[in-house]
Amino acid sequence: MKQSIAFIHTLRNPPADAEVVSHRLLAQAGFIHKLAAGIYSYTPPLKRVLDKISQIIRDEMSKAGAEEAMLAMVQPKTIWEESGRWDQYVNDGLLFHLEDRKSAELCLGPTHEEVMTKLVSHFVESYKQLPVNLYQIQDKFRDEIRPRFGLMRGREFIMKDGYSFDADEEGMNRSYLAMKEAYSKIFARCGLLFILVEADSGAIGGSCSQEFVVTASTGEDVFLICDELEYAANQERAESIIPNTSSRGESPLAIQKVSTPNVRSIEELCAFFDCLNPDRIIKTLLYKAIYKDREEFLVTLIRGDREVNEVKLKNHLNCLSVSLASDVEVKNLTGVEIGFLGPVKLAKNLLVLADSSIDGICNGTTGANEKDFHFVNVNIGRDFSVSNYIDIGLAKAGDTAINGNAENASHKLRATRGIEVGHIFKLGEKYSKAMNATFVDSDGQAKSFVMGTYGIGVSRVAAAAIEQSHDDKGMIWPLAIAPWAVHLICINPKNDAQAQVADKLYRLLLAENIDVLYDDRSVSAGIKFNDADLIGIPLRVIVGKLASSGKVEFVERKCLSKRVELELEEVLPTISKLL
Ligand code: ATP
Ligand code: MG
pLDDT at position 392, please? Predict the structure, then answer.
């Protein structure tokens, strides 16, 4: 492609709303154009990147025995009601929801479990036709609460979504493993450094799921890792062994009510009681749970130095969502002002869930269910009872990995940020049962398909690659997904020697089927190099003054200071070796 006629329009300044480097650089390089919040058009250079990522996916999918299909993007509400997910997605506010001329409700597909289950169960009748593994690469639509970071969290974005159908769990496990291996190859071929972590299954559901995560400081998710034990999990999902409370093993003292005027938060309490350790406080929080047909309030008890993991809480309650009750709701339901709730003599009709972190607290401090008062020396079993402890706590760095030993310092978790680029799930019969999708098994019985689902954020992969690979001058594309492999720059096309050498190299590279962008523009060398640095094509051949003596310069984008001189005949072999 000649740059003089290519649709490449770099901007002098990045957009004001770009918070992360990939957004800034993709916009400044003219790879994306924002149409509305989280909705972008992709220009030809980015289309080339997306096509290359897609081609790697197609290649690995077909090696793993999966076939490409293309499903309808507009989906009827009825199939979402069959699977039972309509309410969840409406509650999450994620659906782009429409009505047709006959007032039938539809949505733009945020994911395709329902559509694929319909398709496969229509055609597949017998166990002899299994397994089936189909995928597609297509735009998905999610009305994200906070669309941001350019391609990272769009409202319309490209996803590869795949679905496996097996006759039994063993088959599903085989399909899952094959996809896990294929995904590892895909992300490695895309030039990404990634980790595989345990994940929450979220609104997709199912028994087990893992995420592929590109580590990057700008990632929206936190992951907890123990290298020694090879444990890695999304913080939403992570379990851990927490340090013991400092009150453990004390002798119980008599409960006492203490006046604590205006002392509400954990920090205020600790200060008021003269450096009270927060691990002696029983934090009492009122939550509101939203179900399909009702709202319910409940109380969680957790140690003062720990936080509630709302994903675990929501999963435990099997509700659509949870959120902290407002000040007014706390007052109305318990008669107590926020900051003074406690488990002793709490309003009777409330469900109380105790996190395992409070187990072992002796002589604890809690709100006294009376404005401006707290109890001290509260003891579990004596002053209030807990029927069972559950894990609704947020694991954090410094905790011991759940499979580790608290005495061993190398079993501690560390936190890192990352970008979820892929997510694989064992679904089991969740969708097939709900949607009555069956086949006839070898014993003549009708059985539900045992499914898996596998997603890759194709457009997010492009952004993640830039988060991981850039410098202060611009993007540095990994070779396998770069818009072009080679940037051929003719410094002065008006100089005959330079123009001739550059034209010749361009023809040679094209003849070898090497992706080349040829900067043949009549602009200053400064502009050419600024653009080239920004666009980030990995290999660069510079045709300049040396052309008259039959030489050019070669440099890799990732190390601009290492320019080497090459004879013309050395150019192709040098490039071929790197490809
Ligand atoms: P997230 O937790 O980031 O919202 P998710 O878990 O809801 O993502 P999945 O349903 O697992 O997403 O979708 C499969 C893949 O699609 C994700 O792993 C991610 O790479 C990509 N993806 C999801 N949402 C978006 C989005 N809004 N913009 C770009 N890519 C996305
Ligand atoms: Mg996910």
Answer: 97
Distance 71 CA to ligand 2 centre (A): 20
Q: Residues 53-79: pLDDT tens digits?
A: 999 999 999 999 999 999 999 999 999
- pLDDT (mean) for 272-294: 95
- Give the residue whose CA is nearest to atom 28 of ligand 1: 153
pLDDT in tens, 164-181: 999 999 999 999 999 999
- Please tell me whether residue 572 adopts helix, strand or coil conformation: helix
Contact in structure between 462 and 436 (CB atoms under 8 Å): no
Nearest CA to ligand 1 atom 29: 153
Other CB atoms within 10 A of residue 244 CB: 13
Let me know if 459 is exposed, middle or buried by CB neighbors in 10 A (0-12, 13-18, 19+). Answer: buried
Q: Identify the residue whose C-alpha is closest to ligand 1 atom 27.
A: 153
Report CA-CA distances (Å) from 278 to 257, 281, 459. Answer: 18, 5, 44
Phi, psi of 195 (to 5 degrees): -125, 160
CA-wise closest residue to 234 among 191, 195, 206, 203: 195
Say if CB 240 and CB 358 are below 8 A apart: no
112 lines ligand 1 (CB under 6 A): no
Q: Residue 283: CB within 6 Å of ligand 1?
A: no
- CB atoms within 5 A of ion ligand 2 belong to 423
The pLDDT of 262-271, averaged and rounded, is: 96
β-pair type (96-99, 105-108): antiparallel
